[in-house]
Amino acid sequence: MELLITIDIGTTAVRIVAFDFKGEKKAYKKGSYPTFHPQPDFSEQDPEQVFITVLFILKSLLNELFEDKKNKIKGIVFSSSMHSVLPIDKNGTPLGNALIWADNRAKKEAEKIKNSALGKIIYEATGTPIHAMSPLAKIAWIRENDAERFQKTYKFISLKEYVVHQFTNEYIIDYSLASATGLFNIRTLKWEQNSLDISGINENYLSETCPIYNSEAKLKPNLAKSLRLSANTKIILGSTDGCMATIGTGVFAEGQATISINSSGAVRVFGEEVLNDSNQRLFNYVLDKNQYISGGPTNNAGVVLDWFVSQFGSFQHGKDFEETMLNSLNEALHVSPGAEGLIFLPYLLGERAPIWNSNARGAYFGINIKHEPRHFVRATIEGIIFELFSIGKVIETYRNINEISLTGTVVTLPFWSNLVADIFGKKVNMNHSVNSINLGSALVGLTEMGVYANIEEAVKSIVKPDRIIEPKVHHHELYTKYYRIFSQLTQKFKEEFDLIAELQAG
Amino acid sequence: MRFFALNKDKSDELRAFHHVFEFSRKKVQSVQTNWADCKKNPGLRFIFIQEGNFEWVIDNKTITVFPNDLVIIYPNQVLQSKMEAFDNGTYYSITILPKLFNEEKLVFGDWSSIPATEQLLIGKLFLLNRKSVFQNFKIAGEILKKIELEIFATEIGFKAIVNHLIDELVVYSTRQLSREENQRKHFPQTFHKFDQILRENLSHPWTVEEMAAILGLGTTTLNEKIRAYSGFSPLNYLINLRISESIRLLKNTDISITDIAFEMGFYSSQHFSSTFKKMTGYSPRYFRKTPESKEE
């Protein structure tokens, strides 16, 4: 059987899925690696461990597949998280760990760039909101605060480029990943001079940019031999997790949106135009020439409920976290929509879209004498989805959203998907069977290999929801009233967020 | 209710127990100006609070303890009262002297019926966590009360029973240690701790049993949970960490391959090279920074 391998280098793990040419999943393996926080605002990953994990998991998946002599690997497609920065020296040796998307050390640099005369121009040119996550700000931080490392740096690459370099010996970056750096012009598809000036670097510090379908780089001969792959195996550059998850859930037309709910979350739409938000709240990432994935990310999704349950869950004897989580969800299910007047602002980790305020903090509002722990569980989950809804609202000022494709770790829990349908008041599609990021990569790979004429045809032929949920109108009406309060509280607390964050910083 | 203070080599009651440095039940009611007990603790000390509350400083960290709390003080730690705190209450204290207790090993001695391999594990758990306060740990109080009765009654068989009770105190504390640590945690947090402990002890000859005990899990559950979360078996995850660290050392230092092998817990440089090749497809030499070796 002819097979395509998709490798997603995610935040917590690499996930590798083999697909046949019809887009059917044939094998799956994952391997995790940790994130280090040597200081409060720092989030780092070890590039060697990431690469070794990719290699180990790939080898063990291939060994399994090669037990069937008829299996032939025709190509490998890559995807990864966005925004990581890894300085390397001339020999390609990493200069320390990679700064990943969650790294917040560059918040002052980001603030400075955002408020400068060039801030708006750079946002409009690069599509990436100016924030500590952006490699633009991270490189500026390294230059200002770690001059020695900056001096030694030959190139600033991402974890994905590091892995691709280990596979091919080339320094190349796809348009999607480049468009999440704040350094890349999403219209001209070239590195943006204004950004380069601000970071203090030039084009030579960055990889060569290529379309996501690029397959010119060749697998290193000794690696091919060790993996028992043919030297002709196509190495397809691929895209980012966000772009892949969007097309991987079938979103490729007006009126559709993808909502991802993992530890963090995002709302995304596909379009042939960018969403040029005057308040710089939305990102616009490049899928291909004149094809954009736009939307907004939230810091506070699954991680907030994990926090709630581990702090306040009723851990009965012998019950572990997962069981306690299910119990809590079960309790929340028996509370009516709106948690009988309890509203939760989920900003435990500050917030990105739509308010972009790292000082924002959480709050429960409306507590009365009748509220029980189960009301708090429900309010917590509703608060997380209200926040996603608030991102959806901003997108809707530019684009209609008629239906939603839901993806992420919560997809298997009907409670969440029902809430998404009711709060958004829209139809929700889901597919339980496959990781949407890897499926998106398969679509890109199969298109490159000519199995489909173009990406749109691939999306329409392969991605089919296996479950559809309709919103309950009366619930949506009630949630609209609650959302109004949610949104007003978020606005009103702006000053108090700053004050409390200052006290918390000590 | 009796108050007493027994000391090794001084009190007849402890003559049969050379491994007990002191055993006491004290009532304290005073404003502390400078507490006498600021010597380094010679063994493993257990203090169980019966009444009142105390503000103590262990190695510069302040703790406040209440009735039914158990405090463990590890060898060489210094326990002090917080200056000018009003300490008021009663507590049991027992200090046992293991034959050997360091980063590598814990050996209680012949009196204990805990198997040697488990003693080793218990030592590892204590030292890795260094947890001082076990809240609301009533069972420790019950055990100490029984020890007191046995030691003063000296009925037939009391020696065996006291030693057995000390074993019990140690084992229950160990279990509580790993359980308390991990039960409320979301598995990713537990995994994070697992990752950190391995990372800090890469050269240690780890066994799955040790790993399981540290997370307060059985070996089967450990295997299942680590595999489900990380995609690796516990031992393969360890190898993964060792190989990643080796690559960094190969690229960034001039340490010889043999030395790296030993530092990373491999038996020999052959064992290192073969594992390395199996995992990565390359020999360790490939990652040495010299450009010509890259042509291999």
TrEMBL record, chain A:
Signal peptide positions on this chain: none
UniProt xrefs under Pfam families: FGGY_C, FGGY_N
Carbohydrate kinase FGGY C-terminal domain span: 287-446
InterPro entries recorded: ATPase_NBD (IPR043129), Carb_kinase_FGGY (IPR000577), Carb_kinase_FGGY_CS (IPR018483), FGGY_C (IPR018485), FGGY_Carb_Kinase (IPR050406), FGGY_N (IPR018484)
GO MF, any single term: kinase activity
SUPFAM superfamilies: Actin-like ATPase domain
Carbohydrate kinase FGGY N-terminal domain boundaries: 4-248
PROSITE patterns in UniProt: FGGY_KINASES_1, FGGY_KINASES_2
Any one GO biological process: carbohydrate metabolic process
Keywords linked to the UniProt accession: Kinase, Transferase
Family: Belongs to the FGGY kinase family.
PANTHER family in the record: GLUCONOKINASE (PTHR43095:SF2), SUGAR KINASE (PTHR43095)
Entry protein name: Gluconate kinase
Organism for this UniProt entry: Emticicia aquatilis
From TrEMBL, chain B:
InterPro entries given in the database record: Homeodomain-like_sf, HTH-like, HTH_AraC, HTH_AraC-typ_CS, Tscrpt_reg_AraC-type_HTH
SUPFAM superfamilies: Homeodomain-like (SSF46689), Regulatory protein AraC (SSF51215)
Molecular-function annotations in GO: DNA-binding transcription factor activity; sequence-specific DNA binding
HTH araC/xylS-type domain span: 192-290
Pfam families cross-referenced by the UniProt entry: HTH_18
Gene3D superfamilies reported for this sequence: Homeodomain-like (1.10.10.60)
Keywords: DNA-binding, Transcription, Transcription regulation
Top-rank taxon: Bacteria
Keyword Iron: no
Stored PANTHER family: ARAC-FAMILY TRANSCRIPTIONAL REGULATOR (PTHR43280), HTH-TYPE TRANSCRIPTIONAL REGULATOR EXSA (PTHR43280:SF2)
Protein name: HTH araC/xylS-type domain-containing protein
Species whose genome carries this gene: Emticicia aquatilis
